[in-house]
């Protein structure tokens, strides 16, 4: 069974033709699919069925998809959230990624949508039964591979699933500088990494959370990538 097989995706899109294309493609790839055209419908459906992932249009007739994403995450912290947006300005993208797992700009390629959702679910959807694993440690950082929790100097660090996946990859690489392209492949599962600000955005989120509990731990090698001090 693949990481996503049997996973349920909530598609929130008010344009019927787009919703139909997404639904057909997702079902073809063995996802369970629910659709909603408004914020209100989406909240009702999510409460009833608890989906594994939500694919959210940013502009909805009765509200903002980003606000919907925040509310869904409050109700279900392990929910994977991917945004569909016609806006590609850096401020829009950063705003969406501050609590979501990925974003896709319109017009989109349907194969890319499937690949992005599959990749996000690999990061966020645990196996039904997880073996007991020893924690990962680097300096005063400790990552529990069973509970997906993080501590620094004994204090809990609250991370999103994508933030956790990024930090775990850096920890597994020790003090080595990891190229940005490698992070895009291994953390975001991008088959053909292109220019993207997603790595820089998530590095800034990690720094903000980790540096609040100690000395700066993430280093930057300009033009190359990132590592741990």
TrEMBL record:
Residue ranges of domain Response regulatory in the record: 8-121
Residue span, OmpR/PhoB-type domain: 133-229
Organism: Streptomyces tauricus
Transmembrane segments: none
SMART domains: REC, Trans_reg_C
Protein name: Response regulator transcription factor
Signal sequence annotation: none
Residue range(s) of DNA binding per entry: 133-229
Keyword Phosphoprotein in record: yes
């Amino acid at each position: 069974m693949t990481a996503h097989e049997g996973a349920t995706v909530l598609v929130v899109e008010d344009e019927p033709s787009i919703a139909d294309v997404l639904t057909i493609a997702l079902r073809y790839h063995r996802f369970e699919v629910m659709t909603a055209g408004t914020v209100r419908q989406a909240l009702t459906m999510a409460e009833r069925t608890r989906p594994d992932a939500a694919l959210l249009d940013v502009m909805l007739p009765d509200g903002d998809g980003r606000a919907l994403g925040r509310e869904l995450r409050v109700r279900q912290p392990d929910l994977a959230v991917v945004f569909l947006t016609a806006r590609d300005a850096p401020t829009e993208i950063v705003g969406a990624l501050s609590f979501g797992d990925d974003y896709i700009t319109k017009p989109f390629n349907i194969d890319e949508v499937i690949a992005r959702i599959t990749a996000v679910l690999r990061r966020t959807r645990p196996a039904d039964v997880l073996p007991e694993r020893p924690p990962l440690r680097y300096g005063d950082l400790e990552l529990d591979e069973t509970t997906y929790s993080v501590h620094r100097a004994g204090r809990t660090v609250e991370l999103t699933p994508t933030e956790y996946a990024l930090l775990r990859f850096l920890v597994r690489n020790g003090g080595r500088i990891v190229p940005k392209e490698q992070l895009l492949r291994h953390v975001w599962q991008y088959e053909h990494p292109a220019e993207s600000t997603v790595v820089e955005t998530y590095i800034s989120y990690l720094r903000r959370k980790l540096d609040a509990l100690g000395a700066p731990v993430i280093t930057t090698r300009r033009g190359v990538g990132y590592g741990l001090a």
